[in-house]
Write a structure and sequence with these properties.
GO molecular function, one term: ATP binding
Largest sheet: 7 strands, mixed
Distance between the termini: 38 Å
Shape: globular
Number of strands: 19
Structural class: alpha/beta
Strand order of the largest sheet: 14-13-6-7-9-8-17
Protein name: Apyrase
Helix content: 25-40%
Family: Belongs to the GDA1/CD39 NTPase family.
Number of helices: 26
InterPro entries: GDA1_CD39_NTPase
Keywords: ATP-binding, Hydrolase, Membrane, Nucleotide-binding, Transmembrane, Transmembrane helix
Length: 719
């Protein structure tokens, strides 16, 4: 990574991962592209992001618990996270630092109105309490789909493993060099991977097209399959499991429900609260009693995969959700979150090996879960499994382990490494670690928490995409950084790195030769790529500003005036006289609009006279034209009588109306033989400097004259 010099400012970004169990703040920083390009060794690499453990902080519980009290989410939840971030970001960099709060599965389970209220209060609090860059609440504070979360995770894993920057070093065969990604939280689980060439062609419509950009401005494109299973996270799976137990055992008069997924002798409420020996609450309510039978636990959790749900689009893995066929010759998966915590948290202290193999893991789980709860309590006090393991963690690990094993092997289909040795004490983990050093994560599955000392989090993938979008494209017309449907150009569901989405663009795709302004905007709020109409619509109707209605009325007034001025002099006259007809009982001279109209016309007439005077120096050239070369017939009709002349002298508006009618008359024609003097005056070819009195006497010729007013430049609207 490029070493920061004293006069080089980093770019910073903040992401708050609002999960189901808590919210964690992450801080990332990278060098601006102008500085990064000074190091030629990183030209063909993605921007180098860095973070530190001390930059991260988590608070409990999740923001979804504020559904009923959304006004409290700021001071009672966000305040310590924001204060923590401000400790590590230079004060002068804060206004240019984008901040995102992206909520996941926990918020997805809330009713829509509660989601909206919580998010609105979050955004208002951040904007009022900090100077972070947060130009658009809908973009920077939102509930993201599980598919988006999975794609960000896929980016983060491959970024840290080096698959993007050094594809030749990660060749898996068949032209494949990326790794699959598995994530399991409390409420949902995600899978993301690039299928082999055959499956990619067969399921092209199911893939997401991702576009990144290296420091030298060259794009990288990947076609990734991503899906999510809401309700298949560890906590939600446990809730469904307890519901099944209640249906099976919770009959009248039966309070004790045997639970093979709890250690022997452990009593707990349905919500997971441990019941101590001194608690008398069991006398009138149902409770779970641990039997510590891990084999039975595996059988009880298998139905939670819902493999029997119909599959409308073959093939499917879990809950009838379509997933292209996995090719484990090239699809090697990295698992994070619960995949890591459940496989390592309990056993990390006693067993130093980090890799996962089915036989070793299952034997360790079986040994732990079949202990008496009293023995486990003693081990917790003695820190046998480390400082992080408490009673709640120990109580949950047996169910989570059985759920993870079922999900990995029966759900997703990960090969059971070491399955042939389940009846022995053979430890395949050590062999797996040794082979991993040579192959480099080329096993079917490996749980990780950090890669190269950096935590693998989907939030990193979010900021890698954001930093990549700040790189200027090497060629004009390059398509923007982001992701969307696997179609050419920019699809309607395209997501810019700032989080914005094109909602109202026409149903067409922008080809590679089309210039777009999306790239520059993608580094900012993301919505910068909207059309002007979209921006106006969002500002007026989606903004929380209290004065948007008066602003909308003011905008309409400006639009009407601009349209009136741009429609041409003749049309203005017709509109004016339609709205304000001249009569003996009412005169437009007394109206404000009439006065405004006459002043506008006189100003243009005066401007014409000024331009005529400016052309006086060109008199010699004007004399080259003979007035007899042109003739305008039928200009003076019966209406142009002496009485009309008097009227014209008294009413300039009438003169203007009559001259307009004469000019637009279908009888008007040009003869190349003669040209009347008033036409010459109108063209400004032989006009001499004259006094204002003489110009007033020649009002008729002025009225018949035709001056072209300079059209105003169109005003560019900005949101």
């Amino acid at each position: 990574m490029v070493v920061q010099k004293a006069d080089q400012r980093h770019r910073y970004g903040v992401v708050l991962d609002a999960g189901s169990s808590g919210t964690r703040v992450y801080i990332y920083r990278w060098l601006p592209n102008s500085v990064a390009r000074l190091d030629e060794s990183v030209f063909h690499a993605l921007p180098a992001l860095e973070t530190e453990d001390k930059w991260t902080k988590k608070v409990h519980p999740g923001v979804s618990t504020f559904g009923d009290i959304p006004e409290s989410v700021g001071p009672k939840h966000l305040q310590p996270l924001l204060e923590h971030a401000l400790k590590f970001i230079p004060k002068d960099a804060v206004p240019d630092t984008p901040i995102f709060l992206l909520a996941t599965a926990g918020m997805r389970l809330l009713p829509e109105q509660q989601q909206h209220d919580v998010l609105r209060n979050i955004c208002s609090y951040i904007q009022s309490e900090t100077n972070f860059s947060l130009p658009d609440c809908d973009v920077h504070v939102q509930v993201i789909p599980g598919e988006t979360e999975g794609l960000y995770g896929w980016i983060a894993a491959n970024y840290l493993l080096g698959a993007f920057n050094a594809p030749d070093d990660h060749s898996h065969g068949k032209g494949h060099h990326t790794y699959g990604f598995l994530d399991m939280g409390g409420a949902s689980a995600q899978i993301a991977f690039a299928p082999n060439a055959t499956e990619a062609e067969k399921h092209a419509n199911d893939l997401t097209l991702l576009r990144l950009r290296t420091v030298d401005g060259v794009p990288q494109e990947y076609k990734v399959f991503v899906t999510t299973w809401l309700g298949f996270g560890a906590n939600e799976a446990r809730r469904r499991y307890v519901e099944d137990l209640e249906e099976s055992y919770g009959t009248d008069g039966v309070l004790e429900m045997p639970d093979p997924c709890l250690p022997k002798g452990l009593k707990a409420k349905q919500d997971g609260t441990i019941i101590s020996s001194t608690t008398s609450a069991t006398a009138s309510s149902h409770y779970l009693l641990g039997t510590g039978n891990f084999e039975e636990c595996l059988r009880k959790t298998f139905p939670l995969l819902e493999k029997d749900v119909p599959c409308p689009d073959e093939p499917c893995l879990v809950h009838g959700v379509h997933v292209p066929a996995l090719d484990f010759d090239v699809n090697h998966f990295i698992g994070i979150s619960e995949y890591w915590h459940t496989t390592h948290e309990i056993f990390e202290m006693a067993h130093k090996d980090k890799a996962y193999d089915f036989n070793t893991y299952q034997n360790r789980v079986k040994e732990f879960c079949e202990q008496d709860w009293s023995a486990i309590e003693k081990g917790i006090k003695d820190k046998t499994w480390g400082k992080k393991v408490d009673e709640k963690t120990a109580m949950e690990v047996c169910f989570k382990a059985s759920w993870l094993i079922n999900m990995l092997h029966d759900g997703i289909g990960i090969p059971r490494v070491g399955l042939e040795d389940t009846s022995s004490s053979h430890n395949g983990t050590k062999e797996l670690l040794e082979s991993g050093k040579e192959k480099g994560f080329l096993d079917s599955f490996q749980a990780v928490n950090k890669i190269k000392s950096t935590e693998v989090s989907w939030t990193l993938g979010k900021m890698v995409l954001y930093a990549s979008a700040e790189v200027p494209s090497a060629r004009e017309g390059e398509l923007p950084v982001g992701f969307g449907s696997n179609v050419p150009g920019i699809p309607k569901d395209f997501q810019y790195p700032g989080g914005g989405r094109l909602q109202d663009i026409p149903d067409y795709h922008v080809g590679p030769d089309t210039k777009t302004g999306a790239d520059g905007a993608s580094a900012g709020a993301g919505v910068g790529a909207h059309s002007i109409t979209d921006q106006i619509h969002d500002t007026l109707f989606k903004s929380d500003a209290p004065h948007r209605l008066p602003g909308f009325i003011f905008f309409l007034l400006i639009l009407i005036i601009a349209t009136f001025y741009l429609c041409g002099r003749d049309r203005r006259a017709r509109i004016y006289h339609t709205l304000f007809p001249t009569s003996s009982s009412s005169s437009p001279k007394s109206s404000f609009l009439g006065l405004l109209f006459r002043r506008h016309r006189r100003r243009h007439s005066a401007g014409r006279y000024d331009r005529d005077r400016d052309l006086e120096d060109g008199d010699a050239a004007a004399r080259l034209y003979d007035p007899r070369d042109f003739e305008l017939e039928n200009v003076a009709s019966s209406s142009a009588s002496a009485s009309d002349d008097d009227d014209l002298g008294l009413d300039p508006d009438a003169a203007f109306r009559k001259s307009s009618q004469a000019r637009t008359s279908p009888k008007t024609k040009y003869d190349l033989g003669r040209l009347p003097s008033d036409v010459m005056d109108r063209k400004g070819l032989v006009v001499r400097t004259e006094s204002r009195e003489r110009l007033g006497l020649g009002l008729e010729s002025v009225a018949n004259g035709r001056s072209k007013s300079r059209s105003g430049s169109p005003t560019r609207l900005t949101p």
